[in-house]
Amino acid sequence: MTNNQSDPFIGIKKLPIIAVLLTGAFIAILNQTLLTTALPVLMADLNIDANLGQWVTTAFMLVNGVMIPITAFLIEKFTTRRLFITAMGLFGLGTLVCAMAPTFEVLITGRMIQAAGAGIAMPLMQTVLLLIFPVEKRGAAMGMVGLVISFAPAIGPTLSGWLVQSYHWSILFWLLMPIVVIDIIAAYLFLKNVTTQRSPKLDSLSIILSSIGFGGLLFGFSNAGSNGWTDATVFTPIIVGAITLTWFILRQLKLPQPILEFRVFKYWVFTLTTLIGMIVFMSMIGAATIFPIYMQTMHNFTAFESGLMLLPGAIVMGIMSPITGRIFDKVGARYLTIIGLGMIFVTTFLFTDLTDSTSMTYVTVVYSFRMLGVALVMMPVTTAGINVLPRHLIPHGTAMNNTMRQIAGSIGTAVLVSVMTTAAIRHAETGEMGMLEAEISGVNTAFMVATGISFVGFVLAFFIKSKGKQTETHDSKAREQKPAIEHS
Question: What does the alpha-carbon distance between residue 388 and residue 79 come to, in Å, rounded to a whole number?
Fold first, then answer.
């Protein structure tokens, strides 16, 4: 295959496109974690309790999760530049509403508008990067995505903890506004169309079913951690979501132009790598939720200190993601995934014996090695799965991958928090240990469950074939065809 055939975008400047997309992704992910340590201050200022306060995160996650499955349709309907500018425009509008919000209701409205833009921008960014790079260079491209995905949430809690000590919480949103405006201007100047427009028909019922289905699951699992599995706010939306989602899937399989193409799961490698990615994400997000609780409520560390504890691990992941991507391009995903999941399994097990005197150094070092394992797995399995898809299914593959991870993150958080609280209550009621000891025992039990989940992923990693044995299943005709590169 010639160089032109392997890289149909050889004639365009990729660096400005990459910079624009990664900047948008960075501020979208940064925004998602920026309010975590600022929540107590925000609650006091708006005179709301914790149950209402957590909706600044939950509402964002719900709308974000509902938007992701629709992006495959939007990517095929609109040009890259127009869709990205629209997404960042929505995000910017939501950020402005949040910055000027006089009441909690206005703040939630702004967060939902933000989430609509972020839900479009993230899968679009991954799709474009996968399209403009040939298969043999996609690992390095996705490594850059990994850097952004890990570094943004790393500095979010620490940055917000520092800022709200000296300024009003609205500074967190005003801080984002100039970056959003600059990114929109840069997108107008440099972003070109690299996707193929197919003019798919809008099936309104599918949009409704998708929103209720994915939204119901995310809402139910989000409530499970705090309300328990038997609460009506948990099992009702999960049941409704599951039934609606089944209807949505069956409808997509019958439509000539589905909103989200579930036939991507006919590709075994994509299905396997998506499942492994979900397991890693479930373990990663769940642990990131439990650690601040353990550090702040059971170990008397401040929010700023607990943010600092997570920072080295996220920096390690950020540094390693581009390196891992280049290694993937040379050796494939198999050995990286086996080593990475082995590290996740071992380091998660090391967190099953925490006490109220466990040193911050121990937690920080083990967590850093754990995130190194995540870096070895996350982007390689994503890229390996997308690489087996024909070009026209890549938007559907990235949308499906992001959707499954969003759901896995919600389930992982709900399950681990639920296990933690249930185990703590059980130990406290028996009278065998004091309340603090019971709470820490609950954390250890949650990490035992996370260890089991990690082990399942470790076993699945052995089913990934080595690079030399993988059979290319691309639609070469679709891959080699150079799409029209437009400026609008």
Answer: 24
Instruction: Return the SS3 of 332.
Output: coil
CA distances from 472 to 135, 338, 387, 389, 393 (A): 10, 22, 8, 9, 15
DSSP 197: P
| Residue 291: partners with Cβ closer than 8 Å, 6 or more residues away | 306, 309, 310, 363, 367
E strands, 384-451, in order:
none
Length of the chain: 488
Angle between helices 138-163 and 104-132 (to 10 degrees): 160
Contacts of 109 (CB under 8 A, 6+ apart): 97, 101
Tell me how far CA of residue 154 lies from CA of 7, 151, 402, 427, in angstroms. Answer: 34, 5, 20, 33
- Distance of CA 106 to CAs 119, 215, 260, Å? 20, 21, 32
More confident residue, 180 or 257: 180
First and final CA of the chain: distance in angstroms?
31
Query: Which residues lie closer than 8 Å to 419 by C-beta, 6 or more apart?
Result: 442, 445, 446, 449
Q: What CA–CA distance (Å, rounded) separates 87 from 64? A: 12
As a whole number of angstroms, the distance between CA 128 and CA 116 comes to 19
User: What local confidence, expressed as pLDDT, does residue 10 receive?
Assistant: 58
State the DSSP code for 388: T
- Homologous superfamily assigned to 11-200: MFS general substrate transporter like domains (1.20.1250.20)
**CB 301, CB 295: distance < 8 Å:** yes
pLDDT at residue 300, rounded to an integer: 76
Residue 291 burial by Cβ neighbours in a 10 Å radius (0-12, 13-18, 19+)? buried
Domain boundaries, the chain: 11-200, 201-258, 266-470
Q: What is the pLDDT of residue 7?
A: 53
**Average predicted confidence (pLDDT) for the chain:** 81
Band the pLDDT of 273: cuts 50, 70, 90: very high
The domain made up of 266-470 is a member of CATH 1.20.1250.20: yes
H helices, E strands: number in the chain: 20, 0
